Automatic annotation (TrEMBL):
Subcellular location: Nucleus
Reactions listed under catalytic activity: S-ubiquitinyl-[E2 ubiquitin-conjugating enzyme]-L-cysteine + [acceptor protein]-L-lysine = [E2 ubiquitin-conjugating enzyme]-L-cysteine + N(6)-ubiquitinyl-[acceptor protein]-L-lysine
Keyword DNA repair: yes
Gene3D superfamilies, per the entry: YVTN repeat-like/Quinoprotein amine dehydrogenase, Zinc/RING finger domain, C3HC4 (zinc finger)
Name this polypeptide is given: Pre-mRNA-processing factor 19
Length: 620
């Protein structure tokens, strides 16, 4: 038996289980290691497929052909033939390699030619660019002259604020700062125990359900009954809580609206959107129209801030810029780029100080920066948060600021530029919004739920509101005197938390509202605040008697026990006392006792009462 490879008697014979051929073990093992196949049948072959044969260990005789000269010549001839075949295969392989090498050389030559051509074109373009840059100053000067001739219609950003604008900002800040020092906290601000009694009073479905989410909200300067909401459905809605109807839907943005603000009055609004625009809306009859679209920024507009003068706007965007706009001229006055913020993902939120001279910006990389709006300089930076800054709010006291991020809420003292308190409302879960009330006594926080912290209670939780969607809260806002908390959540519902309807009724004072300029609003009067006394306010026409009767009857139907408190004394006069008797009789109150509408005793109160039947002028 001979080896199928060498043709000799194998010393260690093995047989392939697949083909049955006999091989010398050392030869077939080498072939398997090199090719992994049977050298005869080309089938896949492994060492496990070999079966070793056991033979006797006697001296093996030479094969018969090798025992004679003709046999040896035959063996030599076979060896020569094998060598020639191998040489032929090597020549074929050599020709193939030469062809591949030639092809590679041609490719290399072509690539060198292309590179040389591109370099020549590049040099030519550079020369053209140098010529254009030398000619640019003259063309730029001519273009600037044309823009100056066009005036504000050009709406091009300028280098900075003009001295007139800077003076106006300074004067406004000085006036507000002086007024703040003299202003006392209103006596009608809700007490902590009042807020602790707040419950979910109403839920108002707004925006589209398919793209639910109220991302921001603002209360109308004309009264907290009208609320503006910014939705994830790319629209802004104005909702009248008193009339329980949508006043207007502002459509024009193409992506979600991140922020909305009233600009001085209910007639003008500003909104910022993910479509990289800031829009200015103005009332036209019963609807609103887009008066102007600012598109100076190249990132999502995440915040819009209204200056206390109501003449200027500031918008912050995710491209790391904030822009200062003139509302009357509908022009971008200046645009400030923050390279550090842009490198860290851009701005994520912004807020303006109540005095209007300080702008605070929050970034996606957890940095909080303070800017001086007149000089557009970064004057301070606060570190300490972890994660994206999601909300900023200034207290009306002028020196407290709250910021929130994924690690909770931090409180900053602007006088000492330090963090003096940190809150972790949700044990590691992100906090989405913060808002101080106007008195500065309470801080609203939104995240997994909505909650209120008391400033004078050492920042302890006064109330937690869990009647919110599982996806959490996006925006919180206090009503007047912190008598209500408005919540915009991840669904499309606006929620209002307030005291039950049997809470104490604030004192009714038409003269207080007349002094505040709320005259002929067409909405009537909201019953809250102040003190009315016949001794000092004896002018009581018949129309006012009817309205007072309506107020008392409404309070009585709400569960109050309307009784008249003596306020006027003897100085009220006979006519006034007669009118008071008729009022008490109409209201079902006892006929004895003297005096006015100063208070309704007991714990049952009507919070907000609208007398819409008559204008304010008929009351006075």
């Amino acid at each position: 038996m001979l080896c199928s490879i060498s043709g000799t008697v194998p010393e260690v014979p093995v047989v392939s289980k697949k083909s049955g051929h006999l091989y010398e073990k050392r030869l077939i093992v080498k072939v398997i290691q090199e090719t992994g196949r049977d050298p005869v049948t080309s089938e896949a072959l492994s060492e496990d497929d070999l079966l070793e044969l056991t033979t006797s260990q006697v001296v093996k005789p030479r094969p018969t052909p090798a025992t004679s000269i003709p046999g040896l010549l035959s063996l030599f001839q076979n060896e020569w033939d094998s060598t020639m075949l191998e040489v032929h295969q090597l020549r074929q392989s050599l020709n193939t390699v030469r062809q591949e090498l030639s092809h590679a050389l041609y490719q290399h030559d072509a690539a060198c030619r292309v590179i040389a051509r591109l370099m020549r074109e590049r040099d030519g373009y550079r020369q053209q660019l140098e010529v254009a840059q030398r000619a640019l100053p003259e063309a730029g000067g001519a273009k600037r002259g044309a823009e100056e001739a066009e005036g504000p219609a050009g709406k091009k950003p300028k280098a900075g604020l003009t001295p007139d604008i800077a003076d106006k900002l300074t004067a406004c800040s000085n006036d507000l700062s002086k007024g703040r020092k003299k202003r006392a906290v209103s006596g009608t601000v809700a007490a902590p125990e009042d807020i602790a009694a707040y419950e979910l009073q109403s839920t108002h479905p707004l925006h589209k359900t398919s793209k639910g989410g109220i991302l921001a909200l603002d209360l109308s300067p004309a009264g907290e009954s009208v609320v503006a909401t910014a939705g994830a459905d790319a629209s802004v809605q104005l909702y009248d809580r008193g009339a329980e109807r949508v006043l207007a839907t502002l459509s024009g943005h193409t992506k979600k609206v991140y922020d909305v603000k009233f600009v001085g009055s209910q007639e003008v609004l500003a909104s910022g959107s993910a479509d990289k625009t800031t829009k200015l809306w103005r009332a036209e009859g019963d609807s609103y129209a887009c008066a102007h679209t600012f598109s100076e920024q190249s990132g999502d507009v995440v915040s819009v801030c209204v200056h206390p003068t109501s003449d200027y706007l500031i918008s912050a965007a995710s491209d790391g810029t904030w822009a200062f706009y003139d509302v009357a001229q509908a022009a971008c006055v200046t645009q400030v780029a923050d390279d550090a913020a842009a490198a860290g993902g851009g701005y994520s939120c912004a807020a303006l100080h109540p005095d209007g001279l300080i702008l605070c910006t929050g970034t996606a990389d957890a940095a909080v920066r303070i800017w001086e709006t007149r000089t557009q300089k970064n004057v301070a930076k606060f570190d300490g948060h972890e994660g994206r800054i999601s909300g900023i709010s200034f207290s009306e006291n002028g020196y407290f600021m709250a910021t929130c991020a994924s690690d909770g809420v931090k409180l900053w003292d602007l006088r000492k530029l330090r963090n003096f308190k940190s809150l972790a409302p949700y044990d590691g879960a992100p906090t989405s919004s913060v808002a101080f009330d106007y008195s500065g006594l309470y801080l609203g926080v939104g995240g997994a739920d909505a909650r209120v912290y008391g400033v004078k209670q050492d920042w302890a939780v006064v109330k937690e509101f869990s009647d919110v969607p599982k996806k959490g809260v996006h925006a919180v806002r206090f009503g007047a005197d912190a008598r209500s908390l408005l919540v915009g959540a991840a669904d499309h519902n606006l929620r209002v938390f307030a005291a039950p309807h049997d809470a104490p009724l604030p004192v009714f004072d038409p003269f207080y509202f007349h002094e505040q300029g709320v005259v002929d609003s067409g909405m009537g009067l909201i019953a809250r605040g102040g003190t009315w006394s016949p001794a000092t306010h004896c002018h009581w026409p018949e129309t006012f008697q009817a309205a007072a009767r309506t107020l008392l009857l409404a309070a009585s139907s709400a569960g109050a026990q309307p009784a008249v408190q003596p306020k006027g004394g003897e100085g009220a006069g006979r006519a006034t006392r007669g009118r008071r008797r008729s009022q008490r009789a109409a209201a079902g109150a006892p006929a004895d006792g003297g005096g006015g509408l100063a208070a309704l005793p007991g714990s049952n109160v009507l919070h907000v009462l609208e007398l819409a039947a008559m204008p304010m002028s008929d009351w006075l």
